[in-house]
Write a sequence for this structure.
């Protein structure tokens, strides 16, 4: 039976995402994929998803209506308000939606990114092995662009079974320093600048999107530390680059594939989801760890 | 959480600028650096090393991305650790840098870019003389980067070097042929750029619907021709 959803309202930068398209850096294409991989995964588990495709929305949320058919939807990431036909539901959670049902996701208390996953497969073309949207490269998703009001999303297949899953207690591990490994240009910075970079709070600004997050250096850690622009090297998500005027930018999932600004550190995989959810105005403190330590954290975080 | 203080810098960095250098890039990649500035021999070493890695798979390596003077090696930390992979890479640093056979691409360019006159002036050449020198001899694809299918081709002889523009254009169209820093680049998508726009080509080095989305490979030879 056919199944489709209509987008009644989409906040800015609401995109279709899946596991992304790794392995294409040599072609000049960054991987994309969810800003908060853990939350994307949790929404999929809750929905009984049988593939990796879902919707990533931003702080303003998203309103959908089921046009035809029925399906299960799982939601997770940050702390949003969710209603089904006007009735409040727990976050994160799962709901069964039938034709005519309305799903309203409204701004909530925490986080920048939320996820909707389904027990049916979104019927969108694979582009270079993925349905993830890269608005920078205009690839994937719906015509390589963000979702907007009026878009209709169709589903294929009958849908998987939904097992009852107890959502984990949130609040765990959402505070504390963001851990980095030293960056590929850390040795280009003065020892004093490196010392000050560690432990000095920076502030997350509202200049943020899927390409990067600009930080405010209110304590002047990088004031006057001018490093000439370097020869371009490959970039990966989590790299902390310092612009010529001393502004730090954390590069995120839709980063440009190569860049020539000096990089002092790289946020470790275990902390990148948490950083992505930090809102403008929040303070971020960086702490260095070894690569081996980051690997141990990665292993202990495996579901 | 472990004590954060006194984490040493990655070990490769304490020994000064000895190259090549193997440094971690985050917790799932290593960067093997063959130069600190852009030069032809470092770029050739990059391509030879990347080819060696492609031919000789190392367990746990999931992506090899050559860049201008460095090679990114992405790995799965569940399959290989930092020390072992660094050792495996170091073992492969030596060896012959004889480049393999590469293809030649002839690319037709309309030399009609808005900066063509300025570039010729900067070099003290007439436009015709500049175009002739620009196209003479052909160039090598140094790398793909910055944007999908965007290729850097080099190197022109040193007399044909101009700096980038002081102002960045917020968008130039796919097919723009760009010139700066002794190189010619081809935009395969609409991009912002601070390079001089000297012409346009119908050639598009990016097709998201193709199984291989780009045609030019680092190391290939490119010969620019005046479009008929």
């Amino acid at each position: 039976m056919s199944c489709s959803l209509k987008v009644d309202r989409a906040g800015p930068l609401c995109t279709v995402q899946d596991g992304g398209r790794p392995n294409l850096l040599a072609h000049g294409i960054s991987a994309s994929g969810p800003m908060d991989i853990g939350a994307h995964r949790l929404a999929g588990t809750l929905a009984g998803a049988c593939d990796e495709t879902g919707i990533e929305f931003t702080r303003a949320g998203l309103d959908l209506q089921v046009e035809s058919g029925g399906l299960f939807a799982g939601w997770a990431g940050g702390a949003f308000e969710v209603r089904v036909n006007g009735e409040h539901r727990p976050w994160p959670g799962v709901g069964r939606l039938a034709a005519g049902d309305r799903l309203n996701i409204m701004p909530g208390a925490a986080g920048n990114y939320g996820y909707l996953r389904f027990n049916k497969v979104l019927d969108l073309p694979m582009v270079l092995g993925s349905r993830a949207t890269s608005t920078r490269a205009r690839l994937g998703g719906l015509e390589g662009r963000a979702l907007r009001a009026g878009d209709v999303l169709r589903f294929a297949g009958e849908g998987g079974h939904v097992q009852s899953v107890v959502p984990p207690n949130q609040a765990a591990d959402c505070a504390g320093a963001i851990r980095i490994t030293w960056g590929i240009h850390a040795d280009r910075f003065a020892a004093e600048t490196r010392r000050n970079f560690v432990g000095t709070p920076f502030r997350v600004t509202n200049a943020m999107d899927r390409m990067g997050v600009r930080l405010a250096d209110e304590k002047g850690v990088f004031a006057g530390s001018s490093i000439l622009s370097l020869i371009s090297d490959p970039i990966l998500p989590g790299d902390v680059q310092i612009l010529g005027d001393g502004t730090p930018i954390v590069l995120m999932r839709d980063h440009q594939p190569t860049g020539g600004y000096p990089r002092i550190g790289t946020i470790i995989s275990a902390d990148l989801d948490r950083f992505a959810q930090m809102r403008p105005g929040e303070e971020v403190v960086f702490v260095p760890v070894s690569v081996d330590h980051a690997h141990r954290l990665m292993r202990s975080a495996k579901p | 959480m472990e004590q954060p203080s006194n984490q040493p810098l990655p070990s490769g960095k304490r020994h000064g600028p000895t190259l090549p250098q193997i440094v971690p890039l985050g917790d799932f990649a290593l960067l093997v650096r063959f130069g600190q500035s852009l030069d032809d021999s470092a770029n050739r070493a990059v391509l030879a090393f990347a080819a060696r890695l492609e031919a000789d798979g190392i367990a746990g390596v999931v992506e090899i991305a050559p860049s201008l003077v460095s090679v990114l090696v992405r790995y799965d930390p569940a399959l290989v650790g930092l020390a072992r992979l660094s050792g495996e890479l170091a073992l492969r640093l030596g060896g012959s840098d004889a480049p393999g056979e590469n293809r030649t691409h002839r690319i037709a360019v309309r030399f009609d870019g808005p900066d063509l006159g300025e570039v010729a002036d900067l070099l003290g050449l007439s436009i015709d003389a500049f175009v002739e020198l620009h196209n003479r001899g052909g160039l090598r694809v140094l790398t793909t980067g910055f944007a999908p299918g965007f290729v850097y081709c080099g190197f022109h002889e040193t007399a044909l070097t101009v700096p980038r523009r002081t102002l960045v254009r917020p968008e130039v169209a796919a097919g723009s042929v760009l010139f700066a820093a002794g190189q010619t680049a081809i935009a395969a998508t609409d991009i912002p750029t601070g390079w001089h726009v000297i012409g346009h080509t119908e050639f598009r080095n990016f097709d998201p619907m193709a199984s291989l989305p780009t045609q030019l490979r680092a190391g290939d030879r490119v010969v620019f021709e005046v479009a008929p």
Observations:
- Chain B touches chain A through 53 residues (CB under 8 Å).
- Chain B is about 20% helix and 30% strand.
- Chain B has two domains: 11-91, 104-226.
